[in-house]
Amino acid sequence: MNKSYLYIFLCVLLMGIGASWVINTANESHDIPIIKKVPNFNFINQNGEFFSDNHLKGKITVLDFFFTNCPGPCPIMTYNMKSLYDDFSNSKEVQFVSITVDPKNDNIEVLKNYAKINGITDERWQLLTSDLSNIKSLKREGFMLFADELPQGHAIKFILIDDNQNIRKYFDGTDEASLTILKKDISNLVKELKRYEKGT
Amino acid sequence: MKLFRIFSYLSTCLTYFLIFVGGMVRVSGAGMGCPDWPKCFDRWIPPTDISQLPDHIDPAKFNIVLAWIEYCNRLFGALVGLTITITLILAYKYYSHIPVIKWSLTVAFILTLIEGWIGAVLVHTILNPVTITLHLILALIIVMLLLYAAQESYYIENPHAEKNSKYPLNINWAFIVLGASLFIEIIIGTEVRGGLQMLRKENPLLDSNFLLYMLGPFKYMHTILGIVILFLSIFLWVKLVKQSDSPSEVVKQSSSLILVLIFLQIVSGEILVFIKVKPIIQLFHLWFAAIIMGLISVQYSAWKKSQIANE
Asked: What span, in angstroms and rounded, lies between the C-alpha atoms of B20 and B142?
């Protein structure tokens, strides 16, 4: 009788090991794939300070391209970005970056004003500008997005970047459904980041 | 006859294992691993690579790991269904004159068909929480019917198994209250888990322990009913093992095993509440509950048998 209990115990143990493996594999399969690394760049923000790819390190970043005079999708994108900015106001690990595609008009003063109008009060949301050629190449080669006919031809994507400067996913910056998924993905990346920090 | 015994035990064990696999699908979030039913991504064998997806299916839905977990659940479910069918045929062949065996297996078979259909409904309703719980409840009923038939066939071959045992008479109520409590406890348990999942969806940044705190009364009901179950099973153990004349091995072992498993349930439950909501512990917490349910039914059948034998 004792022997059969031993067999049952071994079976249950094996089931436990098997199930743990399955659950782990399933969890890992939910991970968001790494698309590519963000290349080097060094732009200027609304306060006239430098902001480079180094500032992406250790943070979860949502990045988009816009311009202040944009009549079309930009106001919606900015509105959506603002709602993310508000939702994650308590997580210092999450930051937002909007790069202008109309540097001719959007100088530091204009960006600063745009920040003020949109209620950007801290460093968690950076509005960046640079030379048009730099912006174009970052957009085309760095983020693999359409970069002709700027500023009108700016993309409506929100780009999710992890703490190791890897591009993880692209989202439609104008629709609410994508935003819901984006929120969840940001949270997952933050959790991953925190787990990593705790682990080391 | 022997063949029937083998198949009735086999179908019981396999169904228990299937409940485990089903729980695994649940905790690993693989329920929608195959977006269609009964096929998986329009194929009888799920794709092993994204390039094998048919054109009309959105590749974003594809996750190879989840697809195969869900597919194994279905495949194993089909195997269990087949085993139950064979058991039913054998029951009609050998035990058609014994209604309890014949009818419990017939009902188990019909419920198995319904269970398969609910599996399809689950996929089509994208995992409606009520349907998930129903899926589990049906599985519990099926496994208990199978177990009951297996035990009855054992008593037919060993008619004197409970003859020498004399148990206290008036404990019918304890079995009923215990069984009902455990049944409700399992349903509340699935609500606790389902509620956690909903809260997590809406508050992705909060950790599980805080979510559990937000859950409030359900959690306390689960604990309170758990205490009732603990005391009733200790009561039955005392009555059946300590205060009986020569209790049978079946009764002694099942009564003791119930206590051991309830102890494990308390430990795993406390770990889930106070330390961490770990999927593997959730899985075993549910599975042990299902086994306790079966053991209570074994206990009850043995007690009942001895009452009839000693009349």
From this structure: 14
